[in-house]
Structure prediction request, 878 residues.
Amino acid sequence: MSMNKEIMATTIEHPAENKVEPELLGLLAEFNDPESLMEASRKVRDAGYNRWDTHTPFPVHGIDEAMGIKYTILPWIVAACGLTGGTIAISMQYWMNAVDYPFLISGKPLFSIPACIPIMFELSVLLAAFGAFFGMLGLNQLPKLYNPIFKSDAFRRATNDRFFLSMDASDPKFSEIDTGEFVKSLNPNHVEEFWSDVESPKLPRNLKLGLSLFGVLMLMPIALVAYKRSTVTDNPRIHIIPDMDFQPYLKAQNTTTIFGDGREMRPHIPGTIPRGQYKDDNIPFYYGLKVLPEDQDVITIAAQDEAKADEKKPAEAKPAEGANADAQAAAEDKLASLPWVTEFPMPVTDKMMARGKERYRIYCSVCHGLGGEGDGLVTLRAMDLQQGTWVRPASYHTDNVRKQPVGRLFHTITNGVRKMPAYGPQIPPEDRWAIVLYLKALQKSHQVDADTLTNDEKRKLRDTK
Amino acid sequence: MQTSHDADKKITVQTLDELGPLPLKIALGCSVLLPVAFVLGLVFNHGWDLFAFSYLQSTFFCLSISLGALFFVMIQQLTRAGWSVVLRRISEFLSLGVIPMAVLVLPIVLLSLTGNDTLYKWASAENVAQDTLLQHKAPYLNNGFFAIRYVIYFASWIFLARFFLNKSLAQDESGDPELTLLMERRSGPAILLYAFTLTFAAFDFIMSLDAHWFSTIFGVYYFAAGLVGFFSVLAISLVFLRSKGLLKEPVTVEHLHDVGKLLFAFNCFWAYIAISQYLLIWYANIPEETTFFLPRQTNGWGTVSLMLVIGHFAIPFVFFMSRWMKRNPKTLCFWAVYLLIMNWVDIFWLVMPNLAFDGMDPAVSFPMILINVCCTIGVGGIFVATILKLSAGKSIMPVRDPRLEESLEFHNI
Prediction:
């Protein structure tokens, strides 16, 4: 009580706005040992008080029962949070994987439970842990930086060797006189009252200054970001982690410090063949030419010219037609003057003929027809549907095609011509030659004089369907 | 080491003998079902295969319980646990089950030594000659080395189980706290030995049934299964013994609560390991790994697999989580029995679908379940009877353990 008067005495000197009537917050009783505290706790519990607490330097077994504390509801909070986490995880994944951005990954179903389990587990655990941590803080009314009990000098020994029981004045059963008598009847060392603060404590000047400074400093990153977003700079952005942004790209004909010889272009490694150069060992076989022309690009340029001309053509048919024809004629000229091979650059066998027939039927016959007259099923259907962009494929039996050397035919299959795409990437050179062989046989079959055939052959032709 | 001030206080020594001869008689009676299962195996179509696999399943089901007990005993010593002292002796008794299992597993080893390929394809030279992968694995998976490993595994386990029981029993006589220190010091290396032997035993005896498949987590899977089995059996034993008036004073609801917590925790651990194994295989979708799950999703095994997911994990997770379930001896006992059955289904699911590699239909069938249940009860009878026999006349509590007082006063906060 004496201490309390002292506070009241000092209060009067303070300015009026800080003055508050002191209020009795509760009673504090001190005990010497845990047993007497337990004993007292049982009595307080039985007396029906609800808002009171005990303070001990170490956990005391059985104090919960002595105080009549109900088992915590924390597990339910944790369970609810965990379930929420699991539900969020599974609905989030359902929405992301099956609704918002459906994407097939290794043939698994769009929404697949096994894939969801790790995230479900993680989020359930995370939210359960949050529930446990914040739920514990909330149920214990923490963090609490200050409690009026701390003003008691005696209470300091609560962390050392004394046991305390505090009665809260907000308890409905609390009354200043009766409760005081009751607490005294518990045989404590002594009882004291604790009162509310009569002034709202002021923050120390330095702390205020420090906090405002910190607050201003905290604004700076935001201000900096806002400033940078609204200005333009010529400087490259700051690379905290450069990743692979800066790489030593090498250019032709330059020097470098990376390699010992200072050359950026690397010389051929002895005993190796650069990609593609092996073809130069067998030009007739790979190009259908006797020798490669001086200007090696002639072949590819001719092909590119045609492709460009085709691209220009679409829709507005008439005016482009002439130009197209010109380009084609120019390409024809260039190609016709090349030294095409006239003999097969590989041995011609029955097997090769059979292979050529098979490949021809797979790749060529759909447009050119089984007989090579340009009446394949695709063509017939396109004509039937009157497709404007469809160009009827050439018949092999025109003089123009018949005159072409085998090398030229091989080149056509490899690189394509007009609407026909290049088949080089799909068909290996051996098969292309086989197709040329079969094609030649087809041409020959259309130009045979009946007189040159024997009777046997004539009969065979008549009987064969 | 500081001894408790009343370590020499007179505590009444109780033994399992007080249960009377009935439990032993019942256990021996049950063991009759093992020959019955054998005869059933001769009667049914493909019965020999069914019996062989069932026998392996039964022995490794019981063995897993003993190994779980052994781990529990060692980990309590390693962590200097005080709460568990009152129930440690029961665990030590359960770990003695490795002794009958050593005998019961012997026929399996002998069978493979003769080159019989009923269980292990790699045991027959003929199969190995036709199979490149088996040839590559032959330096490890061959009959001689297999038998040697069998000896190493069981010798280690029997040694460990007997070491911890004998030292503990010696302490009952002398009350010497040095023995506790000795056990603490030995438990570290002992756990290492245990971890390696258990992992490789699981690889050898169960995983190599399908010698083409491999999973590095399999040893942990078997370990997790064993601990679920052990804590179930421990909970059942404690509730049973207390109902018979044994350990009634020392083992309180607090101890039961902790056994329940560990049972629950290791059940979740089992689920975690199981999903880890499944998920990796599911994600990667590599043919040689998925061969394990394919037979377990067809021919009725899909139902068993789902039963494990829901019955072994989901249902106990929801209903066994509550504190009340673990503190009530009746509900604890219920969940312990339930999880023991689920653990049995788990080992059943691990072993039986491997029948597919014997060229027969591995579908879940009535003869399969009948033979397996008979076999398990039979082997279980021998298992329990031997443990009762070996633990007869011994105190069911380490009466002079220096931490006994702490255990007696144990209280969940």
